[in-house]
C-alpha cells in the first residue's frame, strides 16, 4: 500500500490514523511540506511525538487532547512565544495553569486564594504582581 486511498481504507477498517500511516510507510511517516491529517469521527486518533506518552489527538467523543508526559508541560504559543502552559503540579494553593503576564513579560502561575476570598462560596484565582 502506498496511496492516501490505501490509508483511508485502513482507517475505515479500524486502524487509527497514526497506525495506518505507520503501516503504509513501513514504520514512520514524515511531512516534508504542508500537510493535513483528518481525525475520524467516533474513533480515538492520536499523533505521537517522541513516545506514546506525548501526543495530540482526538478522542472518540470529539475532545481534542494535548498530552505531555511526566514533568513535561503542554504549552500554547503565539508567534513562537508561550502564552499558556499547563503542568502537573501537586502543590497546595497552585493551579496547573500558567498565563502570559504582559506587564512582567513572563508566564506566571495562577494560584488559588483562600476560601471565600472571592466572596461567599468562591476563591480568587490570582497571579503575582
Top keywords for this entry?
about 130 residues, 2 domains, three-stranded antiparallel β-sheet
Explain what you see:
- The protein has 2 domains: 4-67, no CATH class; 74-126, no CATH class.
- The protein is elongated and about 55 Å long.
- The protein has helices at residues 4-12, 17-25, and strands at 45-49, 51-58, 64-67, 74-78, 81-86, 94-101, 106-112, 125-126.
- The strands form 2 sheets. Strands 4-5-6-7-8 form a 5-stranded antiparallel beta sheet, with no helix packed on it.
- The protein contains 2 helices and 8 strands.
- It is of the alpha+beta class.
- A hairpin with a 4-residue loop joins β6 (94-101) and β7 (106-112).
In the predicted model, the low-confidence regions spanning at least 5 consecutive residues are: none
What is the domain total for the residues?
2
Count of alpha/pi helices: 2
Strand content bin:
25-35%
Q: What's the rounded overall pLDDT mean?
A: 80
Overall 3D geometry? Answer: elongated
The succession of helices and strands, N to C, reads: HHEEEEEEEE
The major sheet is characterized as: 5 strands, antiparallel
Fold blueprint:
Blueprint lengths: L3 H9 L4 H9 L19 E5 L1 E8 L5 E4 L6 E5 L2 E6 L7 E8 L4 E7 L12 E2 L3
Antiparallel strand pairs: 1-2, 2-3, 4-5, 5-6, 6-7, 7-8
Amino acid at each position: 500500500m502506498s496511496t492516501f486511498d490505501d490509508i483511508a481504507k485502513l482507517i475505515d477498517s479500524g486502524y487509527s490514523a497514526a497506525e495506518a500511516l505507520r503501516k503504509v510507510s513501513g514504520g514512520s511517516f514524515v511531512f516534508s511540506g504542508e500537510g493535513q491529517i483528518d481525525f475520524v469521527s467516533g474513533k480515538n486518533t492520536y499523533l505521537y511525538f517522541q513516545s506514546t506518552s506525548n501526543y495530540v489527538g482526538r478522542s472518540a467523543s470529539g475532545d481534542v487532547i494535548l498530552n505531555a508526559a511526566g514533568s513535561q508541560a503542554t504549552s500554547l504559543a503565539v508567534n513562537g512565544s508561550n502564552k499558556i502552559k499547563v503542568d502537573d503540579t501537586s502543590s497546595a494553593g497552585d493551579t496547573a495553569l500558567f498565563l502570559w503576564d504582559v506587564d512582567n513579560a513572563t508566564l506566571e502561575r495562577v494560584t488559588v486564594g483562600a476560601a471565600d476570598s472571592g466572596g461567599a462560596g468562591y476563591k480568587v484565582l490570582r497571579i503575582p504582581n
